[in-house]
Amino acid sequence: MSQRFPSLVILLAIGLFVPLLLLMAYFVLDNPILRMLSLALAVALTLLDFLYFPAKWPSSSHRLASRLDHFQTLLFTESLASLKQEYEKMYQHYEKLSERRKEKCYGPLLQIRGRIEDIIHSVKRLEVLAQQVNQGTLQGQQQRYAEMGEIYQRLPRKEQKQWYPQLRQALEILEKGVSEEMSHNSFKQDQS
Fold this sequence. Notes:
Distance between the termini: 75 Å
Radius of gyration: 31 Å
Largest sheet: none
Strand content: under 5%
Number of helices: 7
Order of helices and strands: HHHHHHH
């Protein structure tokens, strides 16, 4: 709707103000031919407005279709909270549809829900890994950090920004563990 909104406003303004101007001209003009012409044009434009605008005004199915298209770009950029809000709006439009139209929109809406659920599961897994990052052996820590990196890459950009500090902290802990391991090994070699 955001792409069609300005054109609808312009058409609505023209559709309302031009007939009003023509109606005002009817009362101001002295020439009977011009008066009848302005009245006829005002009535014709008003009838066209009543026929055209209800057909062009976005219905729930049009709003849902545009939101579905727009959502594909949001999946890669927005945070989880905003994705959930957008999904709720789409679902509200979905509920207003007729049964026939619901059948057509069910698949794409289900795919979007699945993608949001994947992001939720990824965030929960990152939370668990972030808590376990300094536990266990060095090899286990490296595996957890690698898994965190893979999950991080699949998240939307805004969600990545939220998780970057935890990922950076995990890297610092891992580097500290590696340097301690190396110094410990070199100390053992020096004593031998």
